[in-house]
Write a structure and sequence with these properties.
- The protein is of the alpha/beta class and about 350 residues long.
- It folds into 2 domains: about 25-130 and about 265-305, Rossmann fold; about 135-265, Rossmann fold, CATH 3.40.50.2300.
- It is about 45% helix and about 20% strand.
- It is built from 12 helices and 12 strands.
- The protein has helices at about 1-25, 40-55, 75-85, 100-110, 135-150, 165-180, 195-210, 225-230, 245-255, 270-280, 310-315, 335; strands spanning about 25-35, 60-70, 90-95, 115, 130, 150-160, 185-190, 215-220, 240, 260-265, 300, 305.
- Strands 2-1-3-4-5-11 form a 6-stranded parallel β-sheet, sandwiched between helices.
- Strand 3 (about 90-95), helix 4 (about 100-110) and strand 4 form a beta-alpha-beta unit.
- The N and C termini lie far apart (about 50 Å).
- About 45% of the residues are buried.
- The model is unreliable at about 1-25 (pLDDT under 50).
- Keywords: Signal.
- This is Ribose transport system substrate-binding protein.
- It comes from Neomesorhizobium albiziae.
- GO terms for molecular function: carbohydrate binding.
């Protein structure tokens, strides 16, 4: 009798496990990162993987497939084709071009694959953008700098990778703002490819040519290098410059009381995109359609800003983190669910 009872209990358990498996949702999501030149991108991927793990608590199993490499646009298009061949349910891409992916995204849609871009917008009508407004990101730093300078002074700009969609939108943002201040003159603009060493060298060259610079608009990834040249030249007290969101820079910012302000593009944008993607895969519908941006396919996330008023708060969030770790935020599962009907 005991043996029979044990067999019956085992059968019931097996049925329960099978029922749970049948009810659990399984999705395969491909993450494409076409540039690995910074720890920000590594953190972006890590946060997206962590977001996928959290879905298990809701009975949703996410298999994440990552293709992360320094590739040109054709190389990243190959990433997408690989994902299509693998039969993923969704592709989340940090794209190297705003327009080149239109044909391959159409192929993904035809295969029933959801496509979401993040960090840089794309023109494809077959993709949705989930991330910050990069033009507004550039404008926020420029507005802080213009107001800090009292609306006048000679300014230089150190930009990222020429032609990259996020870089071009950021440049458009600061130019629009500075254009509203007739007494602010942009004396030079250079590219330093989001590389700290190149940013430092670019700033050193600019200071040698323009010793009367009063303001520097520089993107994250290069601001720490630019500020090092400013400090080495003994111009810390005479210069205002935009800054970084990494812990090592925020530590210097705090210690040396730099006159800085930083727009935040959080590495958590890909995690936010993943949470939105899962809800879309579940067939849920957004309360407000993603129709923002120049391509009318964007869902914009908030852009935090760090300056002297909340610097201590940002430093507290980063306590115990390694120097390369960036101040971050993301849509939690619950935050993302609130955006859907």
């Amino acid at each position: 009798m005991k043996k029979l009872t044990a067999i019956c209990l085992s059968a019931v358990a097996s049925i329960a496990i099978s029922a749970f498996s049948a009810n659990a949702e399984d999705f395969k999501i491909g993450l494409s990162n076409g540039w690995v030149g910074s720890e920000w991108r590594t953190q972006m991927i890590d946060e997206a993987k962590a977001a996928a793990e959290k879905w298990k608590e809701k009975g949703v199993n996410i298999e994440v497939v990552v293709q992360s490499a320094n590739v040109d646009v054709p190389g990243q298009i190959a990433h997408v084709r690989n994902f299509i061949s693998e039969g993923v349910n969704a592709i989340i891409i940090n794209p190297n071009s705003p327009t080149a992916f239109d044909p391959v995204f159409a192929q993904a849609k035809e295969a029933g694959i959801l496509v979401i871009s993040t960090d840089a917008e794309v023109s494809s009508p077959d993709a949705t953008y989930v991330g910050i407004d990069q033009k507004a990101w550039g404008a926020a730093g420029a507005k802080w700098l213009a107001e800090t300078l009292g609306g006048k002074g000679n300014v230089v700009a150190i930009n990222g990778v020429a032609g990259h969609p996020a870089n071009e939108m950021r440049v458009a943002g600061y130019k629009e703002v500075f254009g509203q201040y007739p007494d602010i003159k942009i004396v030079n603009e250079v590219n330093a490819n989001w590389d700290q060493a190149q940013g430092q060298q670019a700033m050193q060259n600019l200071l040698a040519t323009y010793p009367d610079i009063s303001g520097v608009w520089v993107q994250d990834g290069m601001a720490a290098g630019a500020w090092k040249s400013i400090m080495d030249a003994g111009k810390t007290g005479q210069t205002a410059a935009t800054g970084e969101i990494r812990k090592d820079f925020i530590d210097i910012w705090t210690k040396d009381k730099l006159n800085s302000g930083a727009s935040v593009n959080p590495p958590g944008v890909m995690a936010s995109a993943l949470n939105v993607a899962v809800l879309m895969l579940q067939g849920k519908e957004l309360k407000e359609p993603a129709t923002a941006g120049q391509y009318k396919n964007a869902m914009y996330l908030p852009i935090p800003f760090i300056d002297s008023k909340n610097l201590a708060e940002a430093a507290t969030q980063l306590e115990g983190k390694p120097g390369y770790y960036s101040y971050t935020s993301q849509l939690s599962i619950e935050d993302a669910e609130a955006l859907f009907k």
